[in-house]
Design brief:
44% of the residues lie in helices and 23% in strands. By secondary structure, the chain is an alpha/beta fold. The protein is elongated and about 60 Å long.
Length: 257
């Protein structure tokens, strides 16, 4: 009985110590990560005791906000450019680390008059015959997936003809919702969002060839190294558990630089 009581007291004390050392981190995350982080965040909290507050948006907008002093502890971008710029400007802790590589897809409603063709051949025809009047992409100026969508359309010789039909989302998440809601007949968006359970029954997709645009290597950077929760989260994203969730949402692994 005494032994059981001693163990109970010991575990209770350990729990109090862990709770006392648990912290919170505020994360600026690319919109492509919404569904993956919805699974990673509670697992991180269960493992470490730390909690996360996550804001989703375009990487370029977050970069500008951080430069202006926005109180983020970690930045998860949809590319390596914006995290590296923060490091170069001494606004983040080096190095900027790649955590995954994303993919661009052509997203269509489940019942669409267009074909899910990643080569965009039917998209070309649809622009000519009137089946496509609105094509959603993220803003190329601030969203890496929007920039890659522009590159893919340029590669296919469609950028000029597609521009009058573009519906521009502030970020790739908004561009995806344009397609899911029927506000656009097609979109060039992130595979990680197309794989979301709530979209799977309403949409279909086809992969755009990697060679048609610059790689979508996504990078993270620690902004406030004095925040233990932030440091723990950066470390957690490199664990097997976090990588498994990222793979579930279509991300490929990249080697840390």
């Amino acid at each position: 009985m005494l032994k059981r009581l001693t163990c109970f007291v010991l575990f209770t004390c350990l729990g109090v110590v862990n709770a006392a050392h648990a912290g919170s981190a505020t994360v600026a995350a690319a919109a492509t990560l919404r569904y993956a982080l919805n699974e990673i965040s509670p697992a991180f909290t269960k493992t470490t005791g730390h909690t996360l507050k996550v804001a989703y948006g375009s990487s370029g907008n977050f970069y500008s906000q951080i430069k202006q002093g926005a109180p983020f502890d970690v930045f998860l971008s949809a590319d390596m450019l914006f995290p590296q710029k923060l490091v170069d400007e001494k606004l983040a802790v080096p190095p900027a680390l790649p955590y995954a590589e994303g993919r661009l897809v052509l997203l269509l409603p489940q019942k669409s008059r267009l074909k899910p063709d990643g080569t965009l051949a039917d998209l070309t025809s649809a622009l000519k015959d009137g089946r496509l009047s609105k094509l959603a992409i993220a803003n190329p100026a601030v969203a890496p997936y929007g920039a890659r969508a522009q590159e893919a359309l340029t590669h296919a010789g469609l950028w000029a003809v597609a521009q009058p039909h573009l519906v521009i989302g502030e970020n790739v998440g908004q561009a995806t919702q344009f397609v899911a809601s029927g506000a656009a007949q097609a979109g060039l968006v992130a595979l990680s969002l197309a794989l979301a359970p709530e979209l799977a029954e309403r949409t279909q997709y086809a992969m755009v060839p990697r060679e048609w645009h610059q790689p979508l290597v996504q990078g993270m950077v620690l902004i406030r190294p004095d925040n233990a929760a932030a440091k723990a989260f950066v470390d957690y994203l490199r664990t097997g558990a976090a990588r498994a969730v990222l793979r579930k949402y279509g991300y490929d692994e990249v080697q840390a630089q």
